[in-house]
């Protein structure tokens, strides 16, 4: 068991926690990052499965995600374009399969016009409301007390159009049924990506991938911190208890309830592998996991309530690797959409300069419930049949097949990120980033730009670090706290 004294203890070594750690070290503050898993990366995880390198978690980068792209450059990581030559496939509600090019699905003239209308409406709401403070807008309550499903049907009588537009945000992003979250939450999702049109355009939102895998972002930061005497990253170290001073005075210098007490070292994080006493704590875990930590004293009522309204969605990310990207020979780019198929979206996910071909498919929310009700063989059969429905029978026989199952991961419990239940965003959103005493909150789930994405995790990591640096009392800011504060307390 390690005992450490640090300026900041960070709970969670995902992209947000490690970005915060990196920024805090740049500002001269000492850090310890406690990570529950035996690896860094959180919801980014690049792994070798049966000889194939797979992105089990987050992978794509879009042009608006400038915080992430800047970080990739700083870390010496390069990107490559998603393959997109050839036709896409759309499967209509009646099962008709159509090949098409361009952005609009091959639907009837009426459905296309309705989809165009809904996209324009969502673009305009996203531009008007924005991602920073959707809860502060005059329309926030009105939009937050209606489900996205019902809001869409209030705008259009075309069921296919409503289902297709719903798919982009419900199955495609929040991975919850469109009846379970609000129109305001959908507007936030769109605004966080710049516009709804950006989300609809797979060539934009799924533009690039990191050569060698997204998990390298956190692995490289952890490698930097490993040779830094003012930083520690402790794995296999789930934080069970966080003690903080209820009488915290907001300066990081006072408080009496912490273990060390004096000098502002008033927060103590107790994990399985380390006890860290610090001046500030960052909870860099998704909000659905806050309650896995025992806060002593308990968090205030507002946080107790708010955290019960944020939950993760559910999606199965299916990876199917083939000897060749056979669909390309057939003039297909590998992209397919259907609001009614078991696999709702499929893309060519072939690795950089890999002769083999990889498809990635997504099965979301209630369809994922159904898929998980099947035994593993039956589930694989149904899923590969669904892939074949888009790209042909060769899809039935992958040489490597793997299902990312984040719902079973104790330290995540779903995918991709959390969202509020109906009515929660306008009710609680303004308080989600408010520190509680010396405890700050940082994760992609709380981001404005880049919400739900690695980019948002990076943005919040930077923002949280900047807030802590700004909160430094003058005397603390002037000292050089690295090695001095890094001493063991016992
Ligand atoms: C299947 C999937 C696909 C995705 N696709 C994309 C994509 O293509 N592009 C994109 O940008 N984003 C994507 N995302 C989302 C992206 O991965 C996340 O937004 C991002 O990883 C969030 O980073 P974070 O640091 O906020 O949280 P996390 O990555 O979840 O990191 C939190 C860390 O905290 C740790 N932890 C939790 N509780 C404790 C505790 N009590 N003590 C210590 N440690 C704890 C966890 O183990 C974890 O390592 C995807 C996610 C998934 C799951």
Structure write-up:
This protein is of the alpha/beta class and 490 residues long. The protein has three domains: 2-43 and 216-311 and 419-486, FAD/NAD(P)-binding domain; 46-84 and 205-214 and 315-408, Polyamine Oxidase, Chain A, domain 2; 108-200, Guanine Nucleotide Dissociation Inhibitor, domain 1 (Orthogonal Bundle). It contains 18 helices and 22 strands. The chain has helices at residues 15-26, 66-74, 109-129, 140-144, 148-155, 159-174, 183-192, 196-200, 202-205, 216-226, 301-307, 326-329, 365-373, 376-391, 424-428, 454-470, 474-478, 481-485, and strands at 2-11, 31-34, 46-49, 52-55, 60-61, 79-81, 87-91, 97-100, 208-210, 231-234, 239-243, 267-271, 274-283, 294-296, 310-312, 315-322, 332-337, 345-348, 357-364, 400-404, 418-420, 439-441. Strands 1, 2, 10, 11, 12, 13, 14 and 22 form an eight-stranded mixed β-sheet that branches. The protein has a seven-stranded mixed β-sheet with strand order 8-7-17-18-19-16-20. The protein has a three-stranded antiparallel β-sheet with strand order 5-9-6, covered by helices on one side. A hairpin with a 7-residue loop joins strand 17 (332-337) and strand 18. The longest helix has 21 residues, at 109-129. The N and C termini lie close together (10 Å). Flavin-adenine dinucleotide binds next to helix 1 and helix 16.
């Amino acid at each position: 068991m390690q005992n450490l004294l640090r300026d900041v203890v960070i709970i969670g070594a995902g992209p947000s926690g490690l970005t915060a750690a990196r920024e805090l070290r740049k500002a001269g503050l000492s850090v310890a990052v406690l990570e529950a898993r035996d690896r860094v990366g959180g919801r980014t995880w690049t792994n070798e499965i049966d000889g194939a390198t797979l992105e089990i978690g987050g992978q794509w980068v879009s042009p608006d995600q400038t915080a992430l792209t800047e970080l990739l450059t700083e870390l010496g990581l390069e990107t490559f374009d998603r393959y997109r030559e050839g036709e896409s496939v759309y499967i209509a509600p009646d099962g008709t399969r159509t090949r098409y090019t361009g952005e609009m699905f091959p639907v009837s003239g009426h459905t296309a016009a309705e989809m165009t209308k809904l996209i324009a409406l969502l673009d305009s709401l996203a531009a008007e409301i924005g991602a920073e403070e959707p809860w502060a807008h005059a329309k926030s309550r009105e939009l937050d007390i209606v489900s996205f499903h019902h809001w869409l049907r209030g705008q259009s009588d075309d069921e296919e159009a409503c289902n297709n537009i719903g798919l982009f945000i419900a199955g495609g992003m929040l991975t919850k049924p469109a009846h379970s979250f609000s129109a305001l939450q959908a507007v936030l999702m769109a605004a966080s990506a710049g516009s709804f049109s950006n989300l609809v355009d797979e060539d934009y939102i799924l533009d690039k991938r990191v050569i060698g895998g997204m998990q390298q972002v956190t692995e490289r930061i952890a490698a930097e911190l490993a040779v830094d005497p003012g930083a520690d990253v402790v794995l296999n170290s789930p934080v069970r208890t966080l003690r903080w001073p209820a009488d915290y005075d907001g300066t990081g210098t006072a408080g009496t309830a912490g273990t060390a007490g004096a000098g502002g070292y008033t927060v103590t994080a107790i994990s399985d592998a380390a006890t860290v006493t610090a001046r500030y704590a960052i909870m860099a875990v998704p909000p659905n996991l806050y309650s896995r930590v025992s806060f002593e004293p308990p968090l205030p009522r507002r946080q107790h309530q708010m955290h019960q309204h944020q939950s993760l969605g559910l999606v199965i990310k299916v990876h199917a690797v083939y000897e060749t990207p056979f669909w390309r020979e057939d003039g297909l780019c590998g992209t397919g959409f259907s609001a009614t198929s078991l696999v709702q979206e499929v893309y060519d996910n072939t690795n950089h300069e890999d002769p083999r071909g990889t498809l990635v498919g997504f099965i979301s929310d209630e369809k994922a419930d159904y898929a998980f009700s099947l035994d593993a063989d039956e589930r694989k059969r149904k899923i590969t049949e669904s892939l074949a429905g888009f790209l042909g029978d060769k899809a039935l026989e992958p040489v490597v097949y793997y299902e990312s199952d984040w719902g079973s991961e104790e330290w995540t419990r779903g995918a991709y990120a959390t969202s509020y239940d109906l009515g929660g965003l306008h009710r609680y959103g303004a308080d989600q980033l408010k520190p509680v005493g010396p405890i700050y909150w940082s994760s992609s789930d709380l981001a404005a730009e880049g919400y739900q994405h690695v980019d948002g995790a990076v943005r919040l990591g930077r923002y949280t670090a900047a807030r802590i640096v700004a909160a430094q009392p003058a005397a603390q800011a002037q000292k050089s706290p690295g090695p001095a504060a890094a001493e063991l307390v016992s």
